[in-house]
Amino acid sequence: MAEGNTPLYHLQRCARTTGVENLFAKHQGMNPTASFKDTGMTVAASAARQEGFRWVACASTGNTSASMSAYAARGSLRSLVLIPEGKISWGKLSQALDYGSLTCQLRTDFDGCMRILNHLVRRKPIYLLNSVNPYRIEGQKTAAIELLEQLNWEAPDHIVVPGGNLGNSSAIGKALVEMLELKLISRLPKLSIIQAEGANPFYRCVHEFGGKKLEPMAAETLATAIRIGNPASWKKALRALRATGGQVEQVSEVEIAEAKAEIGADGVGCEPASAVTLAGLKKLISSGFVKPGETVILILTGHPLKDPDFTIKFHRGDLFGETPRESLGRQTKSLQRAPVVLDADLGAVVAALEAAERNS
Ligand code: F0G
What we know:
Layout: E1 8-10, H1 12-18, E2 22-27, H2 38-50, E3 55-59, H3 63-74, E4 78-84, H4 90-98, E5 102-106, H5 110-123, E6 126-128, H6 134-140, H7 142-150, E7 158-162, H8 167-181, E8 190-196, H9 201-207, H10 234-244, E9 248-251, H11 253-265, H12 272-286, E10 295-300, H13 308-316, H14 330-335, H15 346-359
Parallel strand pairs: 2-10, 3-4, 3-6, 4-5, 7-8, 7-10, 8-9
Antiparallel strand pairs: 1-2
Helix pairs in contact: 2-3, 2-6, 3-4, 6-8, 7-8, 8-10, 11-12
């Protein structure tokens, strides 16, 4: 379905606000099902078909299921989706339905869905399409290879990715190391991984346990794509982190929401989980790990229309529910652009325009 070859955008406004002039976004949300999953899914679904399976399945926070459903349909395979009830965005759920999957919303979280699926594939002839599938990882390497081609094989200083189940960071890290071995690049970019504070098992693994163990947790974040407490690929991601010399950071819910609005204000936009990259970058700049003169690539993993609910709530000022608005930063309020409801009257529109002009 013409996956891959996604655009690399210069983030002009974010470059100004962060002070990193060479700040770019590789937008994997511009794939056919609007997330980074497609490059791996096309390979793994093809493998399922080649091996003669009738059914494929995944547990998902939404994007894997959207992608799997589409590629299964294209390959005339039946597909089973296990998703946590009430905790995935409508955009993603609607895709699975539209592409014809059997969609089961389980009363548990992503980790609970994964547990059940692991038992199920042992009992039934179903091909597992989660990112533990090695073909998924091989396909997802494409993002890094394309990126280097877009940069004329000049390695950037930093690549920043969100961390959930940690398949993507593993894939990108593997691609970077392989490109160095093949002498396609002459040095490795540092690959840094960012998690939400409420879903930070990998951050804790690195900062509290020195990478020796990963303690599963009950995850909670409004960035539902990365609401994962027991990431399958943590050991592979740790290898990528160590091979490239990157860092792991965690960011708060407010920091995620602000970063998402800032990427939106650059005319690019992304889903909440992707915005952890910009929020994390700000921390990496503060700690001195990223320097203003360096080149930084944010991997934006999902399209803004995946989760418009989040965006609308943010701009209306009710994203954080009961949280008093005063306790949120001034920055958050200045980024909010609530819709203005007016009478169908020219004068009212002119007045709104003039008020906006005065406030800009
Ligand atoms: N960003 C988005 C938009 C995602 O959907 C995911 C993961 C991630 C980042 C994290 O990537 O898991 O490779 O570390 N989504 C999976 C799913 C888990 O089911 O759609 P990861």
